[in-house]
Write a structure and sequence with these properties.
It is built from 8 helices and 31 strands. By secondary structure, the chain is an alpha/beta fold. It folds into 2 domains: about 5-260, Spore Coat Polysaccharide Biosynthesis Protein SpsA, Chain A, CATH 3.90.550.10; about 285-390, 3 Solenoid (UDP N-Acetylglucosamine Acyltransferase, domain 1).
Length: about 400
């Protein structure tokens, strides 16, 4: 029996403002993860590993940062003459032209394309979380549940006020609240949804009609569309019990890397379920005789002449003699000068930490410091714990 004709739509158009300067010049899905990957690698790899070969990526903010990385789908064997990877952005030429004003609005503007594609299941996923998931299981569960939408959920023991929070009963979703001040449960959506195409397209039209001609558009899925489906009794739940971490804030982004070092939830290069990415064009990492590395991840092209502890160094990072990098995430081509110290920090691409400068703090309860891309922290300058540079 042939597998269901499934279309995965990756929503990659948001600005990611909660990540502050990390998303000033790149889309959030293009943000580096684990020294070697990008966040968008996760949903596309899960699709490829699940046998889903129709993948659409909807872009808007800083689209070049995503498009260049996607390389036409080659890393995931999605560069095909029929199907494969397709990149969609805002368009002009019909009544649905213009910028997307949210995830539901993005789908509504592409509704005719979805209708023409005629999938049996529309799978929708964001690209701002780290997890491993077999999308084929999601599709099978959705079809068996005979639902308008199947929400993949997980229990989150932290602050859930940033998420879509659900109440469930017997495998059905009985209540859904987006970003509640008083959450009714600790169960949140993972931003992976399986839709019945007719129900999705019909609901989008209904929400659009109710919205009228306002400039605000349809907003996000969780604002009107998902609550309406839940109210009709059309929402099923599939509980994800494995690792899932949203990385939508600087603190969460940093914490997910520390978890990757302390107790990896899964291997990014597991041959049975690889998280594929665009090939890196660097030589191997190099640790000099004076260098010392402990409990860290070093990407290709890294050069270490100082001390690196419990940190993730992305391609091209250099740590000079006498420098220390501890409990930190350094993105591509960062330079840490002689005698400088970086602790409990995230340092964006091509930043320069000059000699004897200090960034961040070393205490367990210190907040995470952030240095922006291409910034220069001058010699002996101190960026305090939780500080932002430039301010």
């Amino acid at each position: 029996m042939a597998p269901p004709r499934t279309l995965l739509v990756v929503l990659a158009g948001g600005a990611g403002s909660r990540l502050e300067t990390l998303t000033e010049a790149r889309a959030k899905p293009a943000l580096r993860f684990g020294g070697s990957h990008r966040l968008i690698d996760f949903p596309i790899s899960h699709a490829a590993n699940s046998g889903i070969t129709d993948v659409w990526v909807i872009e808007q903010f800083e689209p070049e940062s995503i498009t260049e990385h996607l390389a036409g789908g080659r890393p995931w064997d999605l560069d095909r003459s029929r199907g494969g990877l397709m990149v969609l952005g805002p368009h002009r030429g019909d009544e649905r032209e213009g910028w997307h004003s949210g995830t539901a609005d993005a789908l509504w503007r592409k509704a005719d394309r979805i209708r023409d594609h005629a999938p049996e299941v529309v799978l929708v996923a964001s690209a701002d979380a780290v997890y491993r998931m077999d999308y084929a299981d999601v599709v099978a569960h959705h079809l068996a549940a005979d639902a308008e939408v199947t929400m993949v959920t997980t229990r989150h023991d932290g602050d859930v006020s940033r998420y879509g929070v659900v109440v469930t009963d017997g495998g059905r979703v009985t209540d859904y609240v987006l970003k509640p001040q008083d959450p009714p449960s600790q169960v949140v959506t993972t931003e992976v949804f399986a839709f019945d195409p007719a129900a999705l397209l019909g609901s989008l039209e209904s929400v659009a009609a109710a919205a009228g001609d306002g400039e605000e558009g349809l907003g996000d899925l969780g604002e009107r569309l998902l609550p309406a489906m839940v109210e009709r009794g059309g929402a099923a739940e599939l509980r994800h019990t494995g690792y899932w971490q949203d990385v939508g804030t600087v603190d969460a982004y940093w914490r997910s890397h520390m978890e990757l070092l302390e107790q990896p939830p899964f291997a990014l290069d597991d041959p049975a379920w690889p998280i594929r990415t665009r090939a890196l064009r660097h030589t191997g990492a190099r640790v000099h005789s004076a260098g010392r590395v402990e409990d860290s991840l070093l990407a290709a092209g890294v050069v270490v002449e100082g001390l690196v502890q419990r940190s993730v160094l992305s391609p091209g990072v250099q740590v000079a003699p006498g420098a220390e990098v501890v409990d930190s995430v350094l993105l591509d081509d960062v330079r840490v000068g002689p005698g400088a110290r970086v602790c409990r920090s995230v340092v964006d691409e091509a930043a320069r930490i000059r000699g004897r400068a200090e960034v961040g703090g070393g205490k367990e309860d210190d907040e995470v410091a952030l240095v922006g891309a291409r910034s220069v922290v001058h010699p002996r300058k101190r960026v305090p714990p939780g500080g932002r540079y430039p301010e």
